[in-house]
Structure formats: structure tokens, C-alpha cells
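Input set for joint prediction.
Command: fold jointly, output C-alpha cells.
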Amino acid sequence: AQTVTQSQPEMSVQEAETVTLSCTYDTSESDYYLFWYKQPPSRQMILVIRQEAYKQQNATENRFSVNFQKAAKSFSLKISDSQLGDAAMYFCAYCQGAQKLVFGQGTRLTINP
Amino acid sequence: GAVVSQHPSWVICKSGTSVKIECRSLDFQATTMFWYRQFPKQSLMLMATSNEGSKATYEQGVEKDKFLINHASLTLSTLTVTSAHPEDSSFYICSARHGAAPGELFFGEGSRLTVL
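C-alpha cells >
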């Protein structure tokens, strides 16, 4: 079974600085998708960024970018120019085939003003 | 983006009663919806996959008779927690698939269930 591991329960960063959240996963498949979701205090899950495993180029969405290392099965999220509104729980997720998302344990990100 | 709505957002019930939670896709048709459970400070655990017009597919360890899922239309899936007990208290989240691309999932706001 696929597993997703986020080894950082909590992270904090100064406003306007850059922070990187780690994620590793385990799979024997070669074609799959990886995601980062944000869950703010409102609890609604919001898609931050998506990466297709067959694409070598790292996905970027404005201030959010990923470092996808397929061989190492690593998928980290970099948030540049951190803003107070970025404070939330961040979940790394894996999806393959049946579109069942497998989530990591989550990382709570705090932004210090 | 696509909108998924859950109702109620918060419910308190007595032990032994049943509670129904609705998940609606407001501006698109969803043939597949997913139900998750999230305990405090923990991740989302998939409970079941709800397919329109057919029986739900439950994950291992999830009691089918305890958590009844019905997907009667392309815009509505319901989760009924039967004979609720305090250990069923949790945050329940649904998501609906929109589009063909994997991961095109949109999440509802979640429903917090507290069983007294």
C-alpha cells in the first residue's frame, strides 16, 4: 500500500521569508500524482499545487513551488515570501489510478509577524 | 472553482441516535464522491468511495452498517452515522471529483459531529 510521510509536525517561519515543507512517499507505481493541500482554521481543504509524476519539471503556482525527486520519492513544498494567510495545516497527498487520495500526517505552519 | 457544500457544518446528538450528513456539488455533477474522517490534529482518513447509482466502496476497517452512504443523484451523497456513540465524534469531510484529471477533487467545508 502507498504511504505518505511528513516528518515535520510543526514548522514556523518569519513573514516574508521562505520555508520548505518535507514529504516522502512510498509506491511501486511509475505513474501517479502528488499534491499539497492546505487546511486553514476553517477546516476546508484547499489544493495548493499538483505534480504529475511523468513530468520532470517541478510545478509552480505563484509563491508555491515543489521539488519533486522521483527516484528519491521526495516531494517538498517551498513557500516563498511567506504571508500571514499562509498559516495552516499542510497535507501532502498521493493519488494513483482509482483517485483515492492518501494523505500524510500533516505539518502545521506558523507565520511569525 | 467548483463548489462542494456540506450540511450540517456542526451537529450534536445523543448517543444511540442517527445523524445524516449531506454533501452536495453545487455547480457540477459528481459521479464519484469520497468521505473522510479527521480526528483532532490528525490527517484525513478515507472512509469510503461513493459512486452514483451503485453501492459505496468502503475502506478496510470501516463498518458498512455503521456508516451508511447513499449517492442517489449526481449532485448529492449522504453519510448516515447510525446508532451514534461518543467514539463516533469526529470531523467528517467529503470531496467530489470534478473533471477527468486525477486529483481534481473539491472538498466540502466539513461537518463536526459531537455525540453526547
